[in-house]
Amino acid sequence: MKKEDKxxxxxxxxxxxxxxxxxxxxxxxxxxxxxxxxxxKACFQDDxxxxxxxxxxxxxALESIDFDFSEIYSVLHGSTSLLCSNTGNAPAxxxxxxxxxxxxxxxxxxxxxxxxxxxxxxxxETLSKIKSKNELIxxxxxxxxxxxxxxxxxxxxxxxxLHGILETLSNKE
Length: 173
Known about the structure:
- The protein is α+β, with helices and mostly antiparallel strands.
- It has two domains: 3-130, Alpha-Beta Plaits (2-Layer Sandwich); 131-173.
- It contains six helices and five strands.
- Strands 2-3-1-4-5 form a five-stranded antiparallel sheet, with helices on both faces.
- The longest helix has 40 residues, at 133-172.
- The radius of gyration is 25 Å and the shape is elongated.
- The termini are far apart.
């Protein structure tokens, strides 16, 4: 491959990484054709971009980004698939769902989520439980709405009680 071609590919990888908020590196080399097709289809459905990359080109692309990815460099060997998403836990859930007891692939190598680097297969459980930004916002809104709903409910309940008491008193006379 020519040096110019490599530079173009490095720029494309860098552009892809910068357009998503998180990325995962996974090993998918041992998957058969059916499992690979199933993985690609699941990625498409979950809005996850799946790209198989050369380790050296990915390494150079990561070096050109203004962040210290040195922890990730140690896992850049063998076959590497890049899973990019704007939802931090979506690729982890997908990888966990795709793994079967007899087939440990796709296997997590590393991940970059919410400006934190996770390295190793043992991090998959942790990553799958991380709440996404939208889930956290929904939790905060639910917590903020709860007291307001209680106040409105109490006011409506009190008004109904008062109306009931007045109606009962008027019926007595």
